[in-house]
Design brief:
The chain has 373 residues and is of the alpha/beta class. It has a single domain, classed as Rossmann fold (3-Layer(aba) Sandwich), CATH 3.40.50.300. It has 18 helices and eight strands. An eight-stranded mixed β-sheet has the order 3-4-2-5-1-6-7-8, sandwiched between helices. Helix 15 links the parallel strand 6 and strand 7. The longest helix has 32 residues. It is elongated. The chain binds adenosine-5'-triphosphate and magnesium ion. The site of adenosine-5'-triphosphate (ATP) has 19 residues, from helix 2 and strand 7.
Length: 373
């Protein structure tokens, strides 16, 4: 579907099995991914929404009080009570990065001892729970697993609040480069870099360090790399699978942005990187758009009109408010025009700023309505 056509999310996602929402921090990736999943399931599909750190109230609205390793089916009743009839099925989960990575290690470890060794290793524990990138990695791993082992018609994937959204797109390639690259091999070979780096003088430093801090850095590090070498082949095979899944014709990326200048710049950058990486773009979503406050009239005219019902002082305040809104609306219109041109998208999907957080079923449905117009 050419992006120049005025179409809703339903048409843009037709035939797509995977939809990944990317964008700058805080623009509404989690909100729009949940709304896209809701819209698709209402239209009849069996959909999995994989969310990352949703706000507590949104998680509650989706029945996601706890992190889980797998999507759970949402009860359609609370939706039906609001007149939202789900013809398909909506499944949702909150991604748990550490648990997902542990599952991968569990599957790929050649034996139980290696598995336990890796999982218990302090370096691994640190890496899997805190290191930047572990969320990206686990999101992609979960996606791969759901796509290959479950029968969802569509999977909508939220992405983590990366400092740089491009990190997400490039994570598998970077990881693959690392796993297959010389650096790691050199490091893992007996007598290789590890031995040289951690040679006698260094090990003395580490030994003192260990005595002072109680952390056996050298022991942990070398044990970690030793046991990791057993899972590396499986890991690079998976990573290759993921890299091709991200380029599959049935996979598409939605770029989400707000009309603010910084996220908009990031959207342009992301679009370029997607194209360069040969990944498909399903569309541009501009969230939290302000529309006309004064409806094209002057503040004085609106104030005069309101004064009859509200009295002069309230009317003046309201008109002032609406004209502030007008300033934002003009800024947004300008950003939308520029983005449309830069990204070659004549009709991006626009979601108005709802004036309050989107954290219940009703608000989510309003967002979905704008996306699936
Ligand atoms: N259209 C909207 N109108 C009003 N509030 C909105 C709208 N869309 C999102 N929000 C609110 O903006 C905040 C950020 O949204 P969200 O969590 O979806 O962003 P995000 O891109 O996932 O952020 P992060 O990068 O931190 O993961 C939330 O409080 C959400 O309720
Ligand atoms: Mg988020």
């Amino acid at each position: 579907m050419p992006a120049s056509e005025r179409s809703g999310a339903g048409e843009r996602l037709r035939g797509k099995h995977v939809c990944i929402c990317v964008g700058a921090g805080g623009v509404g990736k989690t909100t729009t991914s949940a709304a896209l999943a809701l819209g698709l399931s209402m239209a009849g599909a069996k959909v999995a929404a994989v969310t990352i750190d949703p706000a507590a109230r949104l998680a509650e609205a989706l029945g996601l009080q706890e992190l889980s390793g797998d999507p759970r089916r949402l009860d359609p009743q609370p939706f039906a009570a609001r007149g939202l009839h789900m013809r398909g099925e909506l499944w949702a989960m909150m991604l748990d990065a550490k648990r997902t990575l542990d599952e991968i290690v569990t599957r790929l470890a050649p034996d139980g001892a290696t598995r336990e060794e890796i999982l218990a290793n302090p370096i691994y524990r640190q890496l899997s729970s805190t290191v930047a990138g572990s969320q990206e990695l686990s999101a992609i791993a979960k996606l791969y697993e759901l796509r290959n082992e479950r029968d969802f018609d569509a999977i909508v994937l939220d992405t983590p609040p990366s400092r740089n959204a491009v990190d997400f797109i490039e994570a598998p390639t970077r990881l693959l480069g690392f796993l297959e690259g010389r650096a790691l091999k050199v490091f893992l070979t007996p007598g290789g870099l590890a031995a040289r780096v951690f040679g006698r003088s260094t090990s003395l430093v580490f030994a003192i360090f260990a005595r002072v801090t109680g952390l056996d850095m050298l022991g942990d590090l070398s044990a970690f790399f030793r046991s990791l070498s057993g899972v590396l082949d499986g890991f690079s095979e998976r990573t290759r699978g993921v890299a091709s899944l991200l380029r599959d014709p049935a996979t598409t990326f939605m770029i989400v942005t707000s009309p603010e200048p910084e996220p908009a710049r990031e959207a342009v950058f992301l679009a370029d990187r997607l194209a360069a990486a040969g990944m498909s773009r399903g569309g541009l979503i501009i969230n939290r758009v302000h529309f006309d406050g004064l409806g094209g009239r002057s503040a004085a005219a609106v104030q005069a009109e309101l004064a009859a019902d509200l009295g002069p002082s309230l009317a003046a305040r309201l008109a002032a408010n609406l004209s502030d809104f007008d300033v934002l609306a003009r800024r947004d219109r300008h950003t939308i025009e520029r983005l449309s041109e830069q990204l070659g998208e004549a009709h991006p999907l626009l979601i108005p700023d709802l004036g309050e957080d989107v954290n219940d079923v009703a608000a989510l449905a309003r967002v979905a309505e704008h996306l699936f117009r």
